[in-house]
Amino acid sequence: MKRIDARKNDQLRKVKIIPDFLAHPAGSVLIDMGGTKVICAVSFEPGVPPWMRQQGVPGGWVTCEYGLLPASTHQRCQREASKGKQGGRTMEIQRLIGRSFRSVIDLIALGPNTIYIDCDVIDANGGTRCASITGASVALQLAFRKLMEKKLISRFPMKENVAAVSVGMKNGECLLDLCYEEDSSADVDMNIVMTESGKLVEVQGTAEEVPFSREELDKMLNVAKRGLDVLFEEQRKIIGDIPTPKPSPKSFGSLGDSLDYALKNKS
Fold first, then answer.
1. What is the reported pTM?
2. What is the DSSP string of 110-169?
3. Which CATH number fits domain 15-240: 3.30.160.270, 3.30.230.70, 3.50.50.60, 1.10.510.10?
4. Strand 61-68 relative to strand 113-123: parallel, antiparallel, unpaired?
5. Lowest CB count within 10 Å: 48, 195, 208, 246, which one?
């Protein structure tokens, strides 16, 4: 099968990550994955959400806001602020991004502070959520280094990098890193979020046209893993090795229950 951009089936689109793209956030990058461009910015604010204070939950919080700029798509998309509400897709994606990073950030080490991840898509060509996660991981690493230098946090809270990539099936063939045209016509569309140590954070897979077999699922996971290894290498080119975090005390028995509540109710 010949792909639209002449790539091999298991080949990523060209990836470029520009660090410190913005002047004001604690950390930021511009990530370009095959024409999908996302500005990922990380901001730090003292204090935690009201629900954490009300329940007496120790530690901090990590959350995300995601959005498409009006001119980022083929036809202008209306700003959700002008509609008066967020769409279901937006809420799903920003919750996914928040979950992805709460899985690798020690919230106790973060202290009673909130980390905001803002992912603004300025050009969309498929895989915007995957590019957002891959870029935001670098922005977080840059931010935490700066926060440590300023002594706003006392321990490095991020355990490892996270990256994401799309994979799909079309006419019985497995394709890595789908562009917009491939994504819109794929028989199976899947997004894989993984940690650098190879652990799965989330697998979002849907049969759009043709149901997929267990063998095809395994093949998609294997192809995605090879692509993710390349993305992790691109991340390391920017941030190098991650500082070894000190473990937090494990005496907070209510933290897990409270986080379960938060994951269901917060972005």
1. 0.89
2. H-SEEEEEEEEEEE-SS-HHHHHHHHHHHHHHHHHHHHHHTTSSSS--B-S-EEEEEEEE
3. 3.30.230.70
4. parallel
5. 246
